[in-house]
Amino acid sequence: MAVVILARVIFGVVYLKDCPQQPNIPNYLLGLALIWLLMIPFVTLPCESDAAQPQELPRGFKACLLCSLGLSLCSWILAGDVWVFSVYQPNYDPAAADGLYCNKTLYTFAFWNAVWETFVISVHLARRCKTLMCYVMMSPVPTSRDFDGNV
Question: 103-112 pLDDT, tens per residue?
Fold first, then answer.
């Protein structure tokens, strides 16, 4: 994962001005790397101060930070999908008359990053839906159906 994050930073910085057709593509790569870098400490550090105790789910402020970072990541990936796929098969020639082009290496790297990240989000969403469906199907049904008994 560290190699991919480093590659995103390198591509975003090196090709920052090499895509006038969609100038947000290098920003997409840099933002994606930044969000993943911000998430690393929360994923790798234990939830409790004493590492000998069993690890618990994050609580309080840490849970809010993880949730907001996760939502930011999903939003950034969706925005990146719009930026990358809106110029699918851009003009790769820098000598174009209108000046609108995109570096082929940058675009190809951003394209496959967008495809991969969208696939990962789709798999996670499908797993969450399956878990929710299993929870609903396995939860017990109340035996009393009258209104007063369920209040």
Answer: 999 999 999 9
The pLDDT mean for the chain works out to 85
Count of CB atoms situated within 10 Å of the CB of 144: 8
* Contact between 100 and 91 (Cβ < 8 Å): yes
The CA distance from 61 to 116, in Å, is 30
Between CA 88 and CA 10 the distance in angstroms is 22
Tokens linked to 136: 């609903």
Supply the DSSP symbol for 104.
H
The pTM of the full predicted model, rounded to 2 decimals, is: 0.77
